[in-house]
Amino acid sequence: MKNSLWTPDRRLILAGFASAPVLRASSSWAQTPSGLSQGPAPDFDAALKARLDRWHANGFRPDGRGVYRMQLGLTYRTDPARVKQMTPEFLDADPEPLVQFNAYNSLVAGRDINVITCGPDYTEIDLGFTCYYKGVRYWTTLPWVLPRDFGRYRGRENAMLRKKDGEVVVDVAEGVIRSHTIRRGFRMLELETTWLNEPAHPKFWFRELGDGDLRIDVRPDPDWRRGVIAEDKVFVSRNRGSEQGWATGMPSRNLDNAPRALDLKKTKFSVGQPSPYDAFSELPVVELVGGSVQMVPFDPNGAPVPRERGPGVERVAPYRKNLGEVPKAQAEPYAFWGRAYDPPIFKGKALTPARWPQQGSMVRLAPEALDAWRKREAFEATADTFLMVDFDLPQKTYTRLLPPETRPVTGPHLRMIAAKLGVNDLSPEHYGESWLLVPALLDGQEVWYALAHLVAAGGDVITGREIWGWPTKMAESVDLTAKGGRLSVTVKRLYRTVMRADVAIKGAPRGLAEERMTVLGVQFTGTPAPLGALNERYVSQPWEIAISNSQALELNGVKVDFPAEQSPGSIGRSDAWHEFQGLRTVSAIVGQARIKRLPGQVRGGDLRPAIRPYLADRNDSFDTTLVNTSFLAGA
What we know:
By secondary structure, the chain is mostly beta strands. Helix content is about 10%, strand content about 40%. The longest helix is centred in the N-terminal third of the chain and has 13 residues, at about 45-55. It starts with 9 loop residues before the first helix and ends in a 7-residue tail after the last strand.
């Protein structure tokens, strides 16, 4: 990542915006905070104060809570030939396509941060193009990009918003707004603009969607050999928009605070570098049409807007409606686009269509990519450094950890794995990850239930979580450093240390050590019940781990801590690893590893409501208020 406005860690601590009503935690889902108070504010407030002053000097004003927001929209014409290649075959290509770019930022002071708005920025962007379905003109968007973890998975799993991780910069200085996005090392969606002292037409307002935004949603099959899509039906769904359709005129209301029109003569926009992981470059700018920026508090639904079918406002909940079923054979090439996944990755690289990026589209998977997906033996990863530590787990603690329909094993251990991954099949980038797992019996088979999985920036935070049910969340850092005969491991998330280990690399050489384990996850795709999918079910997946140059470590040289410190501001204390502080180490092994994750298997039906208390940590208590998550159901 380059050109950050803040410290090198900025891309990891940016806040998110879920674009959905905030759900309050219920007593059956989350743990009630106990003994928590506001921690100290992080140290970005001084720099933020200067930035807030700069925004104010440029005409931006806060809302009643003191929060400054920027909401920007830009519409342009693009190449019809490229849009035709991108448009799914169950939709109709627009012969005169428009593209809409949206960028959002709010500034959050340290004293006000919580799980979703962790400061100093809350940013996200999206890009969509027009299409037709059954004669009606709609938008359809490419995946949104935002940095903040909670906002990303909350938006995906509660509102079905297709969000991905990446760095988004949106800022203003000396009357000029600048924005860019960096993801997987590619710099994209670069904007430089200014504004006029006049209200913008409503059709150019931030995320003004006309008749709505179309998408498909699929439940991925954990056994990829059968294809991308599992057994559920696939539908074209309409999200948001207005019952009265596209805006045609100005509303009859005071527009002094309405979004300002962008000055197109002073606007520069580029889709940026072609990335095989994001299809933005396939929508080149032909002509700028209009745009807006919201600088002061203004409710776009405060009065009806003239529209095609009469005055109206944007839909409120329910936002979403199924418009028609799509045959799976038609939907499968677009399933990765539908779920906002990166395209299939093989040894750190994505397969691209012939002659791409000049021709073809990454929205549609090529037949050879689908064939390779089905034919792969395993998802593999190399680990330059691999540490696995088992701890003695008291029976009372262990019994309370076990999720529904599982049974205890005899002599249980808590297993912690920390790995520095190199070339892998889930991300084109190298990254660190750390796991907590406990053994259990499911239908008589021993499995390892995944309690927690934290990955560093660049790692996969979507596909593992949604295909095999991993409890993946993004950490600020997962650092493994070997030096002077010692290995140091530090895992940080939400401004606090979740785990640290200091290990003397001293022990009996074992050469090649092999470990086989079946990992149990909870597949949670977030499809609302009216759309017909099971929300939460078990998926098991066999793992094979070959540890080369391994050493069985001397236990007196292995020190692992799970600190109980709080996060600052109003975050509280998520990531309940601290509940295992003080456990006795029973074994530890270190080396380099080759990890093979084999096809998964669905294990039973819908687990609701019994599973919900066990997902509190995985979902940061399902809430943005002061949290104190626990792995121990009902604790």
